[in-house]
Known about the structure:
Porin, 1 helix, single chain, mainly beta, twelve-stranded antiparallel barrel
Amino acid sequence: MAQPMGVRPVADHPASVISSNYCAPHPIDLAIVRKVKPLTGESFEITNIEGNIVFKLKAPYSFSHSLRVLLDAAGNPIVTFRQKINSWHGRWKVFRGSSTDSSNLLFSAKRSSMFQYVNSTIDVFLANNTREDYCDFKLKGSYRLRSCVIYAGDSTTLIAQMHKEQSRQRIFQLPKDKFTVTVNPNIDYAFIVVLILILYEIDSSD
Length: 206
């Protein structure tokens, strides 16, 4: 599949944030499906173009509205992310596996401004970027509009994009609770999925 229009080449070295296991040498198309059931609450399934489940996210129904766990297809925890209490910018922290210990922090994400309306701008800081003088990645867009783009830092290098329409291969049928994400080569697609789920949480809280 061709890269989206306007995409600049990404570095040859994989941009691995969660794991290099989720970096592919070719573009990856994923479908993200939101489900709400009366007894089990809200959940997400992330599938590949063949319809096979790649990741699952189950949001606690009553225990904690600020804690999420991304699972692989076998149900193993990949990352845990939670919202920082009393954060004006809606900061979320993402940890390796099922941990929420600071030693396992992978990255954090927050709105660049407290006042955002239809579209959000989210700055992403890797764990070793403690000063946060610059962002390592930036997301711009809206979950409500099913449209966003993710850049490497403050550059114009596009690394992933959420699409309102079906993929170019026309494999997915996309009702309003389903959309596709195209991830560029050598980019950690588990990381991209978590960013879009955080966008959903931030947009939903506004």
